[in-house]
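Researcher: Here's a chain I'd like modeled. Treat it as a single chain, no partners, no ligands.
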Amino acid sequence: MYMLLLIGIGGFIGAVLRYSISGWIQNGLVTFPIGTLGVNFIGSFFLSLVMYLSEYKELFNEETRIFLTIGLLGAFTTMSTFSYESFKLLEQKEIVLLSLNVIGTIVLTFFAVYLGKFIVVNLWR
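Model: Modeled as a single isolated chain. Structure tokens:
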């Protein structure tokens, strides 16, 4: 029950942050979902940091790791929103924007994971 509470609290915080940060990044852009792309990048980066800090540096205990990864970052990242917005671009025949969104999300989130691992393995002291 304690773990579920941790996940729920983290999820609440992550969802509020996603709404706030995504809206701030989007800031008036109507067609291209840059806010979703932004939070997916940020979420992937921080998930990578937490997981690699746990694995390589043993910085987080299990409860903290679960709170941050499953709770906070699980609610913060928005792959379901990404999928929906991408499908809407397809329906609107915005093939260039669809391609930018899909490729951008995959490349940037992979880069974010690499960047997080690189920081932990090579720069974290």
